[in-house]
Structure formats: C-alpha cells, structure tokens
Amino acid sequence: MIELSSVWLSGYAVFTACLLPVLFLHRLFLKYGISLRFSIAAQKALSLSMLLVPFLIFLASQQRAPQIGEISQAQPHLPAATNAGKASLPSHPAGAALGRVQESVADVFIPFVELIFLCTMAGLLLFVARIFLQERNLRRWQKGVFERVEPGISLYQSSAITVPFSIGVWNRRVFLPQSLQGQELDVIKSHEINHCRLRHHLWSLLEACQTHVFWFNPLTHALRKTGNTLREMECDEFSVKSIERFTYLTVLLETAESYATRGMLPIRGQGWNHLEEMKMRISHIMDEKKKKWAAAWIASFALATLLAVCGTFYLANRIDSVTEDSILKEIRSQYAEATRAVPAIEFEKLPLHFVKALVLHEDQAFFDHNGISQKGIARATGRNFLSVLSGGTFLREGGSTITQQLAKQFLSERERSIHRKIQEYKVTRVLEAHFSKQEILTMYLNMAYFGNQTVGLAKAAQFYFHTDYDQLSVEQSAMLIPFLDAPSKFNMIANADAAKQRMANLLAKLHSTN
Q1: 396 with 383: CB under 8 angstroms?
Q2: How far apart are CA 259 and CA 273, in angstroms?
Q3: CA 68 from chain center: how many Å?
Q4: H or E stretch covering 150
Q5: Dist. CA 275–CA 272, nearest whole Å
Q6: Is residue 227 within 8 Å of residue 204, measured between CB atoms?
Q7: How far apart are CA 82 and CA 303, in angstroms?
Q8: C-beta atoms surrounding 469 within 10 Å
Q9: How big, in percent rounded to 5, are the helix, strand and coil portions of the chain?
Q10: Considering just the CA atoms, what is the radius of gyration of the chain in Å?
C-alpha cells in the first residue's frame, strides 16, 4: 500500500507541475477578457482533469508491477521450455549501494506519503459531512416565503437569510433576504435564477469536491476561485439580456458596496465583494474586451497545453538506474526463457535480401532512429484523431517500430492503453541503450510469431518452405515477412490469396528500391 501511494504521489506531483503554465495562461485569458466561451470550456476541462486524473494515475499505478510480464502470459502459443540457456544473454544485477540509498529515502518519504493519503481521505469525509450539514441548515431557511419560479426551481425569502444565493443540482433553490425590495429584488432574483438555469451548481459542486479531496494542492483552490468568477460572468451575460445593462450594473455595484461597508462576507462563490473579480465582471458587462489579441492568446494556451501533455508524458517515461537495471534483467531472463525450445538464428547468416525486405516492410528507418519514430507517431496520431471523429477508438494505431514490436513481447498487458504505451516506451529505450541494431533484429526474429504455432524465423522457414532460414529465396522472404502483421490471418495456409497478394506488393517495393 505504501509503494502504491508513493507511485501515486509522484505521478500526481508531475501532473500538477506540468499543469502550472496552463493554469497561469488560463488566468491571463480571464483577466484580459478574451473569449468568455473559450475560458469557460477550458475551466471545465481543467477542473475535470484536476479531479479525475489523480484517480486515473492511481488506477495506472496499481498495474505498474510487474512492469514486464511473463512471456507465457504475453504469448500463450510459445512452446514448453527445453534446452535451457540456448539464446540467453548475460545478467546485469543492480548495485547494492543504490538499494541502500533507496531504503534511506524511504524512511523519510513513507511517513510523508501516509500523511498525504490520510489527509486526502479526511478531506473527502469532510466534503460529505459539509454537504449534509448544509442541507440541514437550508431546511431551516425553507420555512420562509415560498414561490415556484418555474418547474424545477423554487424561491425562498426569509429574514434569517442575509446574503442572496442559489444552490442545488437536482432540487434547485434560490434563497433571498426578506429585506430586498423593488429594482434590487428583481435584478438579484433574475441573477440567481440564471445560475440555476445554467446548471452552475453541478460545476461548483465538482470544484468543491476537488478542493476538499486535494486541499493540500494550492492549484485546486486557485482553479476554484477562477471558476467562481467565470460562473458569475456567464450569469451576468445572461442576466443583461432581460435587464437594462446600466440598471444591472448599478445594482451590482450598490450590493457590493453594501456588503463591503457592513463588513459582510457573502458565501463562497458569489463573488460580490472581491475587487479583482468585480473589475473583470464590470469590464465584461461593459463589453470592454481586448479581442484583437484573441488568436495569439488561444495559440499560446494551446501551446502551453501541448507542452504540459508532452512534459507529463516525458517525465512519466523517465527511467532511473534501478528501474533500468530491473527492466534489462527481465529482458534477458524472459528472452532466454522464450527461446529455449526455439531454433535460434544468427544475424550473420541472414540473407541480405531478407533483412532489406523486413526493414522495408516493417520499419524503413530502423537503422537511423533510436527506437521511436517521430514520423510514425505523427502519422498514428493523425489516424487516431480521425478515428475518434468517425466514432472509433482513440488508440487505434501506435506507429510502432521494430524495437517497439520487440518490446511488446516482454509486456503482459495486451489491451491498448496509455499505461501500456508508457511501459512499451521504457522497454524500447532500454533495448536501444543496451543492444545493437543487429542484436535487436536477431531477438525480434527469434521471438516473432509467424502463425500456425510457429515461433521464430528458423522454425517458420522449416514449417512453410522446408528449408533453412539462411537459404530463403527472395520470393520466400517476401511471402514470409508480411505474416508478421497478422500471423493468424495472412499466412499461406489460412489465406493463400491474401498471402500471395501481399508477397507481390512487397516484391514490387523491393524492385522499386533497386
């Protein structure tokens, strides 16, 4: 449990740090009155992210161990182990000194993690308790003058109420002081009813939950403050459609002055007497916006968001020396286990035309990149985006290189997910750092599945063509390599016509490059 909490806290800290520039730009957007609609959409997206992402990080951290699964789980078609150590690689254990450092850090870090976890649980309990306490107080005020404004919205006036406010997600209610009369009553009543119509209370409830659960994070409180202002500005915009703008502004300023001179603090979220928020509201009501820089601000916000996402992904992919040694040890162990009963190949004996066809078909930049293809990622991102627009799934394509395909063999998680992609990138980086391109290709071909329970190129050459892998012809290579895309679907036994067509396509590519 302590290890799980530590991983969660680390991920949450990375997420918060990367989100900081986005929140800063978001506040500038609001301050200079640039696109209220955009600011509201950004606020809701950020609020949901601040509330949900920590729980997603928690779920992902539950699945982090083991990072590299058993090969028997990842590839159930592998044969039983025999001839131990045939293709094994030398082990590389982590240093004992690093373990001692890790233990000393844990002695300080574990109590801190326990405290944060307890505070989070206490904040959630406090939020629930305050909801019930608030409902009990509201029942006392509901004994005043009652009026059904419209279906789903009730209005109450009582001498016990000192500050106008509205509340409720499903049972929407407006509470007004009995002292309000005439024009002031009409304006404030319209304002609070618009809060109910705009469903601001669900939005406010989510942000209140966020600040209670993650109360130790100052960014959640800053975000809730911005949300309060945006809700008021949106309500102002709707209210002035039915009330003369100058009249509405007059009542707004008189009410704020009245609260300030009497030393009264309205309930949180009303935003009546905070000077900076009041200036923003007045500027919005008077329509004094600086729209000419809107495009530049929106571009800056998009860039900051992109940098935050990339920064989070980059920091999540960082590998410390202990983790790197652990992954490397697992790679060596799992590779030895997987190739015990599989005839191993030697890279020097591979026909040159086979290597050329494999790289051309699977990863044309294999010998140039460091395991991750930026072009492949960009292409996959575009196709995933189009897939979402057409109603499909997001992780439809991954832009995998040969090294990434090899890395997948060492992962137990089979379903497409962000967590699996991060683990795949980590294993890819370790493979590229500790093995040559020739070694990676050799490992890849020794572990590749070619359909019909055939694992490894040596066994596939014997099974399909009754020949050794170093005797494969150009045509046989062009027939065999496309099996890697969908070995159970495209092999010559399952679908001879598709296999021949794909062979012809690959031969055409080979001839065009000569």
Answers
A1: yes
A2: 7
A3: 21
A4: strand 145-150
A5: 9
A6: yes
A7: 54
A8: 24
A9: 65, 5, 30
A10: 31
Stated as kind and residue range, the H or E segment containing 176 is strand 172-177
Within 8 A by CB and 6+ apart from 432, the residues are 370, 371, 403, 440
Q: What is the pLDDT of residue 267?
A: 42
Contacts of 247 (CB under 8 A, 6+ apart): 183, 187
What's the pLDDT at 141?
80
End-to-end CA distance of the chain: 59
Alpha carbons 483 and 400: distance in angstroms, whole number: 16
Mean pLDDT split into 10-residue runs, the chain, 514 residues: 62 77 80 78 87 75 47 39 42 45 50 72 88 84 81 86 83 87 89 90 88 86 88 89 88 77 48 66 70 58 70 63 84 86 86 91 84 62 49 50 87 68 82 90 90 88 91 91 83 83 89 79
Residue 498 is predicted with a pLDDT of 86
Tokens of 293: 């820089």
Q: Quick one: tokens of 60?
A: 């992902």
The DSSP element (H or E) to which 11 belongs, if any, is helix 2-31
**Residues 54/12, Cβ–Cβ less than 8 Å:** yes
269: exposed, middle or buried (Cβ count in 10 Å: 0-12, 13-18, 19+)? buried
What's the number of CA atoms in the CB half-sphere (13 Å) around residue 222?
Answer: 17
Q: Which residue pairs from 470-478 have beta carbons closer than 8 angstroms and sit at least 24 positions apart in sequence?
A: 470/349, 470/350, 470/351, 471/351, 472/351, 472/354, 474/353, 474/357, 474/507, 474/510, 475/503, 475/507, 477/351, 477/353, 477/354, 477/357, 477/358, 478/357, 478/503, 478/506, 478/507, 478/510
Answer for the pair 284, 40: CB distance below 8 angstroms, yes or no: no
CA 28/CA 137 separation, integer angstroms: 37
Residue 271 has, within 13 A of its CA and on its CB side, a CA count of: 25
